[in-house]
Amino acid sequence: MRLAFALLSILSTAGIVHASDDPAADYQKADRELNNTFKQIEHRLSDDPGGKSRLVHAQRAWIAFRDAECAFQSSGEDGGSAAPLVIAACRAALTSERADQLKTYLNCEEGDLACPVPSE
């Protein structure tokens, strides 16, 4: 179990994720945040069916990437008792990063042509 704790303390695509007593709870929290942000963007795109479709397509592709990346990150523990912890920590980290990424679309500067989400 010490190995799992050590893995959780360093696991992240961006650098460091602090180990948690409950990485599954961390993932659920990050997932709720992501879903709330996604819904806000969907609402802003309600008058743009093409934009909304692209958002959904991008999100589905991102979910596939996240799940594949976390399966890869946990492959060193395949079949081991730490694998679910590694997967949960990975999903929490990547989901939190995605929520932050989507939040930037809600706060684009006026005239930002690279921002696909209209301001309120």
Structure description:
This protein is an all-alpha fold and 120 residues long. It has helices spanning 2-10, 23-44, 49-73, 83-106. It has one domain (2-99). The protein is built from four helices and no strands. It is elongated.
What brief labels describe this structure?
single chain, 120 residues, mainly alpha, elongated, disordered N terminus
Q: What is the helix fraction of residues, given as a range?
A: 55-70%
Number of strands: 0
Structural class: mainly alpha
Categorize the overall geometry: elongated
Helical run tally:
4
The SSE order reads: HHHH
Number of domains: 1
What are the segments in which pLDDT stays under 50 over at least 5 consecutive residues?
1-17
Whole-angstrom Rg? 16 Å
> Mean pLDDT across all residues, rounded?
86
Instruction: Describe the main β-sheet briefly.
Output: none
Strand content: under 5%
Determine the N-to-C terminus distance.
48 Å
Helices and strands in order, then pairings?
Blueprint: H1 2-10, H2 23-44, H3 49-73, H4 83-106
Give a short synopsis of this structure.
This protein has helices at residues 2-10, 23-44, 49-73, 83-106.
